[in-house]
Predict the 3D structure of the following.
Amino acid sequence: MKKIIALALSLLMVFAIVACTAAPANSGSDKYEIAMVTDVGALMDKSFNQGTWEGCEAYAKEHGLTYKYYQPANGSEATDDDRYDAMKAAVQGGAKVIVTPGFLQGNALEKAAKEFPEVKFIFIDGWSMGLDNVSGIAYKEEQSGYLAGYAAVMEGYTKLGFCGGGGGTNPACCRYGYGFVQGAEAAAEAKGVDVEIKYTWQYGASFSASPELQTMVGGWYEKGTEIVFSAGGSIFNSITAAAAANDAKVIGVDVDQSYESDTVVTSALKGLTASVKWALAKVYDGTWAEISGANSASLGAESDAVGLPTATWSLKNWTVAEYEALLASIKSGAVVVDNTLLEADAIAAQPFKHVTIQYV
């Protein structure tokens, strides 16, 4: 881990990593009690960072607490040291609780949590570290992906695409992708149709938009792909640009992305904002021990933490009632979505009867 070698360098680093909101207008404080350290990508990324931040902001405003976000230096190339420096800056800025979205935060978070045991850390998309001041909160993205894949095929699409972030090793994106394929397979069986899926992790390792990704997905659309599931933060911008140019469609991820592009038919949601508020409440209501230490939370349909946004989707051939029936079946356990963590091309190697996967 990087050590601060001079005071001047330390101050430069703090200025490099810090970006903040205003504190509540009547606080008169230069200390910020609730802090968030961003994952890769922009704060308002229309996806993972944004959903997490909105939970922090909402809870802080509702309870009159000061709040601030910190972005690690070096953007998409941020290292564990950069993330640790951001967390340390948050502690020095007065944070009593730090929310850290993204599994890449793990190494830095563990170091910071051990160094600052008086500060509580909420690790979104994380895991239990056995530390009393850390709460790991994970989601059953495979369930949300399943609903999205099922919806796409029931709507009538048979030529699908999936673009994942994290280079094929990000657990959340892998679960989204595997769930998506399982849902497409189940709907294809129900309808008696065959489905083709182009499946890739190319150009998504950094979760950033790129001309290369837009060109590749544009080629998919030109050759007949009808709808693509974008599961990787800001790669969404490249995929929606390609869809708009080809009068094609997109499935968003994490948050309801229909507000960002007319190409979005629906989005595979996880309740980031609600679950961040839920975890923050446990910091302040005396129930922190329920989700910290050896305990962790894995939130899915049974917790209303995954789903599709029925109020804004543009599906015409699959009804809200049918969706709710499927969601209820997942909640009850009547429908079980395989949550095996399959990375990269392992998903393409699974034996599906109605789905053919072209791994790109």
